[in-house]
Amino acid sequence: MPVKVFGSPASAEVARVLTCLFEKDVEFQLIRVDSFRGPKRLPQYLKLQPHGEAITFEDGNVTLVESRKILRHIADKYKQQGYKDLFGPGALERASIEQWLQTEAHSFDIPSADMVYSLAYLPPDMPLDGRGAGGGLLPAAGMHPSHRQKMEEMLQLFEKSRKDLGKLLDIYDQRLGEEEYLAGSKFTLADLSHLPNADSLAADPRSARLIESRKNVSRWWYTISSHDSWKRVKELQRPPSAEAPF
Amino acid sequence: MPVKVFGSPASAEVARVLTCLFEKDVEFQLIRVDSFRGPKRLPQYLKLQPHGEAITFEDGNVTLVESRKILRHIADKYKQQGYKDLFGPGALERASIEQWLQTEAHSFDIPSADMVYSLAYLPPDMPLDGRGAGGGLLPAAGMHPSHRQKMEEMLQLFEKSRKDLGKLLDIYDQRLGEEEYLAGSKFTLADLSHLPNADSLAADPRSARLIESRKNVSRWWYTISSHDSWKRVKELQRPPSAEAPF
């Protein structure tokens, strides 16, 4: 019985797991539920879900719902197939992979998702020059108070996530100056786990600078995002009706 | 609880039902199962299934598996919403719609699916000039016997379906010279039911002539295929990985 993944590839949680399944050459079924009403509405999954929609993963008797646990399960159970270094050849490498997996989960995931979320609310042409939230950036008049309040919140969220991510990525840049990948000389789960959110950052010029301005992070991002497994997931994320001709 | 459709939009059976749900502005969930293995394989639903993959339709306690029965169910149950003339305003219209629905199911469906199926096997540049199957069309040498046999079969299937469809579409052309749509002056289930297979015919220049060479059929096809509901289904049919960049 093949592995089953229930969820939308637009979810970061699901995208992480699909990338891993492609890397490990594991046969699987993707079960998607899309909701529609009438010819004018768009499917609910049209927008990427930066904070991660639910995933359910079934492999025989095992059922898991957290993407990084699922990554570990796949890399362990299918260690003999596909790309073999995903979870390291030995205990030493695994400790380093585990450390960076946890850094991703605890320090990278939330600020990167917050930044993508806040940018979805902020007008693309608003100058985000680091002067702090609301520092004269919002027009003085002509904005509904509740709208203004939401925008202020989003500006604050953007500033906070930019600061947190900037500090974190400085550490990444240093690390990636010493090693080609986060956990050493090989592409591993540690790198893979960053793909969905890093891709969202890279997709918007306002957040892409965080990556592009750091030489080693930028080189690393270019390499890991060129994997066929990730390109394949990106194709699956393409909403079927986004380019509908009406 | 919303209506549930289990199946791939690439199936003619499913496409027929989705078009009807869009026309009737019915809220529904589409549950798709796609199978994958490794970055190099394509999903199984990449090719349209001219003979119709399975569909399962659930609406409360009602479960149905035949697309035309499902069309009747939707048009009846949701008669007060969306496009209201799909199953006619009264019994007289309904008799005519029913007659053409049955013509589609019993006389149009199989030869049109057969033609699409046979064309998938025949080289695009093979001259199909109506001289009959195997009439000197296959090269004399350089073809494996089992391949030759399959090609002969496909040529015969193509010729038979072309003959059957030609006769049928002559009747359609006459009817559509008297009325704008098959069952009268309104677009109904009778027309809608033809969309998936007629679209497959129209997509290949070798079969499109059947439509294009008949003035009234051609005008009718242009009109019905321009419905937003159908364009929406076509977008859903687009396989997510067909244009993968690797």
Automatic annotation (TrEMBL), chains A, B:
Give EC number(s), comma-separated.
Answer: 2.5.1.18
The UniProt catalytic activity note for this protein reads:
RX + glutathione = an S-substituted glutathione + a halide anion + H(+)
Q: Domain of life of the organism in this record? A: Eukaryota
Q: By its UniProt entry, which InterPro entries does this protein fall under?
A: Glutathione-S-Trfase_C-like (IPR010987), Glutathione-S-Trfase_C_sf (IPR036282), Glutathione_S-Trfase (IPR040079), Glutathione_S-Trfase_N (IPR004045), GST_C (IPR004046), Thioredoxin-like_sf (IPR036249)
Gene3D superfamilies for the chain: 1.20.1050.10, Glutaredoxin
Question: Biological process GO terms, please?
Answer: glutathione metabolic process
Q: Per its record, what are the GO molecular function terms?
A: glutathione binding; glutathione transferase activity
Q: What class of enzyme is it?
A: transferase
Keywords from UniProt, A to Z, are: Transferase
Gene Ontology CC: one annotated term: cytoplasm
Q: GST N-terminal domain: which residues?
A: 1-82
Which positions fall inside the GST C-terminal domain? 90-246
Which family, according to the similarity comment?
Belongs to the GST superfamily. Phi family.
- The protein depicted here goes by the name glutathione transferase
